Amino acid sequence: MIQSLSKRILQDKPIAGILTIIMCPLAISLQIIHASAALRFVAACAAIIPLSSFLGDATEKLADRLGHGIGGLLNATFGNAAELIVSLAALFKGLDNVVKASLTGSILGNLLLVLGASFLAGGIKYPVQNFQRTPARVAGTMMALAAIGLIVPALFHFLVGENSAPLEHRLSAMVAGLLIITYILGLIFSLLTHRTQFFVKSADPATKQSLHNQTEVKKPAGVKRPLLVLIAATVGIAIMSEILVGAIGEAGTSLGLTSLFMGVVVVAIVGNAAEHATAVFMARKNQMDLAVGIALGSATQIALFVAPVLVFASYLRPHPMDLLFSTFEVASVILSVLVARMVAEDGESTWLEGAMLLMLYAILAIAFFELPG
Predict the structure, then answer these.
(1) Quick check: 219 pLDDT over 50?
(2) How far is 253 from 250, CA to CA, in rounded Å?
(3) Rounded (5°) CA angle 59-121-368
(4) How many other C-beta atoms are found inside a 10 Å radius of the C-beta of residue 327?
(5) Residue 62 above 70 pLDDT?
(6) Class of residue 33 by CB neighbours under 10 A (exposed 0-12, middle 13-18, buried 19+)
């Protein structure tokens, strides 16, 4: 069974399969012989990228086979599984600053880097590309709420003072709970009450009506293989995350990079690389609903689901994590949300808008690089 599965994987994703076969054993070997932290970090990063691709692909296939409702929920739950696994590994090693930086970086990366690269890649081929306004507006509004959720703990800390950790942890837990409730409401809105506006192009009313009238059809065949791939990829990412997180501090020092920059830029990009590539590929095929949905949906999930889950998971440690991000992290997220909403709310994109989003991402990345960490 394992041999048959391996052959099928190599046939479906040859490059990702070869990278996984090479980099996973290499990263483990480097860990065993206690090689330099930089080598271990790079090898783990190189292994996580194809594993994330397999994880995303398996999730999509399971979603297709399990029907619209369960499939949509599965996609929503596992959409950022790689990022969550890496962050959990860092969380239980006490690297709260790296966890927060990677959350910030994932939000910035999706709103600016992925959306910008998608607009640019698609805009070079097509003068103007269109996508649905409703999902973009909903995602923008939810991201605005998430940004407020980041502002409130920072304002509270500023007003109350330094000796307020218990109050800040309690506030963070309550904010995290409300963010998850918001995320669940968003799922109900997109998967149930307004699903025709999310999963079918607005320019195709006949198909939209057909989707509205049809009942769910489950596809029981073919569930076993993607489920095995999902489990294997999850285990692989967990192992590689342990290696990556264990080497991140020393690797950053040897490479001349602060932990803040490593979290915001490097770890965030690695955890979402496969998803980023998919969004750009879809934009090149003029599938902008999918490209925009990946970028905005992933950012929303990070802010409203992954971040709160990490806060609650931290209560398994002696000292829980709060939602107190640095001033520059909060400001960067707010600016990114505002700009992304501005360029996406009209339902049209051009290459120039993509270039501007990428320029903003570069400006913020440079600033994070120069900040002491």
Answers:
(1) no
(2) 5
(3) 80
(4) 9
(5) yes
(6) exposed
Banded model confidence at residue 11, pLDDT cuts 50, 70, 90: low
How many angstroms separate the CA atoms of 82 and 47, rounded?
A: 12
Mean pLDDT (whole number) for 234-259: 85
Taken in order of first residue, the domains within the chain and their CATH numbers are 2-370 (1.20.1420.30)
What are the structure tokens assigned to 270, written together? 């690695």
Rounded Cα–Cα distance for residues 87 and 97 (Å): 11
Residue entry with tokens 């880097």? 113
CA angle 61/67/71 to nearest 5° reads 60
Please check the confidence at residue 2 and state whether its pLDDT lies above 50: no
- Cα separation, 45 vs 175, whole angstroms: 32
Which tens digit of pLDDT belongs to each residue from 316-363?
988 899 888 888 998 999 999 999 888 888 888 999 999 999 999 999
Q: Is 55 left (phi over 0), alpha (psi -120 to 50) or beta?
A: alpha
Residues with Cβ < 8 Å from 280, sequence gap 6 or more? 114, 117, 118, 121, 291
**Number of helices (H) and strands (E), helices first, in the chain?**
18, 2
Question: CA-based angle 274:129:268, to the nearest 5?
Answer: 25
Rounded alpha-carbon distances, angstroms, from residue 18 to 13, 21, 239, 247: 9, 5, 18, 24
DSSP secondary structure code for residue 184 in this structure: H
Which tokens is 12 given?
């479906």
* Local structure of residue 215 (DSSP, 8 states): P
350 vs 278, higher pLDDT: 350
Average pLDDT of the segment spanning 229-238: 85
- Whether the CB-CB separation of 135 and 293 falls below 8 Å is answered with yes
Instruction: Give percent above pLDDT 90 in the chain.
Output: 19
Helices (H), 287-326: 288-301, 307-313
